[in-house]
Amino acid sequence: MSRISNEEVARIAQLARLDLSANEIAELAGEMEAILGAVARVQEAAKSDVVPTSHPLALVNVTRPDVVRPGLTPANALSGAPASEDDRFRVPQILGEEA
Amino acid sequence: MSELIYKSAAQLSESLAKKEVSAREVTQAHLDQIAKVDKAVQAFLFVDTEGALAQADQVDAARAKGENLGPLAGVPLALKDILAQEGIPTTCGSKILAGWRPPYSATVVKKLRAAGVVILGKTNMDEFAMGSSTENSAFGTTQNPWDLKRIPGGSGGGSAAALAAFEAPLAIGSDTGGSIRQPAALTGTVGVKPTYGGVSRYGVVAFSSSLDQVGPCARTVLDTALLHEVIAGHDDYDATSINAPTPPVVAAAKRADVKGMKIGVIKELSGDGYESGVSERFEESLEILRSQGATIEMVSCPNFDYGLAAYYLIAPSEASSNLARFDAMRYGLRVGDDGSRSAEEVMSMTRAAGFGREVKRRIILGTYALSAGYYDAYYGSAQKVRTLITQDFAKAFSSVDVLVSPTTPTVAFPIGEKSNDPVAMYLSDVATIPVNLAGVAAMSLPAGLSEGLPVGFQIIAPAMKDDRLYQVGAALERELAAKWGGVLTTKAPKLISAAGA
């Protein structure tokens, strides 16, 4: 198991949208190494002729009748929103425009 | 009325049906017990006193009118805080959801309400069900009623502790790698992980979607079966829900007969790493089943040795994807929205502030295991192990009716002992995890005490044969209770007041 660098953890954290502190990143780098060292043994058992399983229950194309049924009202849907405006979720700028 | 809290749900059901006692009296007795002992136990995150009494009054009114009520009408229940209940705080043990009141209820909650079950409140858990001790809850650790300095197991430690502290006769849990069975084992209570797809997950906060399953918890096997029957069944709001009749679990619990059954002992889930007290109670239970007419044989499931490793790749991988929904936009915490920051910055700051250590650890682990260049080596290999474990189960079940093992390698450990060693903590679930990977059904029930602390006995049945768990479990429970003079929790310390808090 090669050492997992702080830079690698920082890159993963960015992919996961986690604004971690430098301390957290250093701590996680050490822990990742210990955990990956313990779990990497799955590779011993995973021979090429074994079919992977994604899900224990092989249901396919689950559908239900396409009928209208009651959903949330706008007020209900917005009841837990951190911010809302005009019956809509208000979100921070998304395109990097000037505020 | 304090005697009411020591009764089983089945006994309460009978007294309620005969109108010897009202649902309000039963509910009030449990609310009183919560007020008395929960400062010490900390099983509940929220107690819905008014709502519970109102539900109880509705049941009493319906009964007075002669309406046809189900067996659990008027019986109180503790709900794990992973299930959405309309208007009631639902945190999943996380700061990121603190204060959220869902605008809808989980299907399981609707089924409980329709059956007249009185929901007392929401129980503590490891944040997003990630943990084996409740120490990862953002709102404090639950104490084990058998020894308040020890953990009650996790993630559903709150539900299990509520049962052992006589705060409720019934509880709901969820089990991704053992979160129902491991706390049941460590608190001397009963918990069942039904067949994957047997109970709806609509309105249940998702952790690892190919593993998660909601299930019933109680102090007796029959009570667990009665609750199982209420919550199970097909739900077209959940695309992974099985569209088939629920196995006859209550009838099986009442039959309680193992004569002629073949029981397989899993070789890989015993021996090294299992405490001697745990192994001794396990062997005694096997002897009882043998004396009741079952045949016991050793069965080998060689790939179970890889179960823990596969689980700690699959569960974090799926969690890293599921937890992407906590984006600070539609509900929950939002941090740093000062007009100058972008949505992406606000999202990253919110998630950093709202998630605890273990959740961050698993998101990083899962994102890493799924990232380009590592997918085949980690996630792909883990999925292959899953196939091998499923094949081990299939082979074993071709020669035996159920499989058994100790539920956990050790009894409840002291608070703080493993909280800084994630790999040691993960080992708590070594015997429960293979069940989730294969989607089969399993129960933990008490096998006795080791140095004053409960030991769990695990029974595993093939998918959709959940009834076998109850048939075997009830037979074992009957013989053990005869020996002990009641089910194991009757020996639990009576928590008189908030002493020890």
TrEMBL record, chain A:
Region (Disordered): 73-99
UniProt cross-references to HAMAP family, sorted A to Z: GatC
BP terms from Gene Ontology: regulation of translational fidelity
Stated name of the protein: Unannotated protein
Signal peptide residues on this chain, from the entry's feature table: none
Organism, as annotated: freshwater metagenome
Automatic annotation (TrEMBL), chain B:
E.C. number(s) listed in UniProt: 6.3.5.7
PROSITE patterns: AMIDASES
GO cellular component: glutamyl-tRNA(Gln) amidotransferase complex; mitochondrion
Chemical reaction(s) catalysed: L-glutamyl-tRNA(Gln) + L-glutamine + ATP + H2O = L-glutaminyl-tRNA(Gln) + L-glutamate + ADP + phosphate + H(+)
Domain Amidase: from-to ranges: 25-469
Class of the enzyme per the UniProt entry, highest EC level: ligase
GO molecular function, a single term: ATP binding
InterPro entries attached to this UniProt entry: Amidase, Amidase_CS, Amidase_dom, AS_sf, GatA
Keywords assigned by UniProt, alphabetized: ATP-binding, Ligase, Nucleotide-binding, Protein biosynthesis
Record flagged with keyword Repeat: no
GO BP terms, alphabetized: translation
Tagged with keyword Isomerase: no
SUPFAM superfamilies for the chain: Amidase signature (AS) enzymes
NCBIfam families: gatA
Similarity annotation: Belongs to the amidase family. GatA subfamily.
Name of the protein this chain belongs to: glutaminyl-tRNA synthase (glutamine-hydrolyzing)
Source organism (scientific name): freshwater metagenome
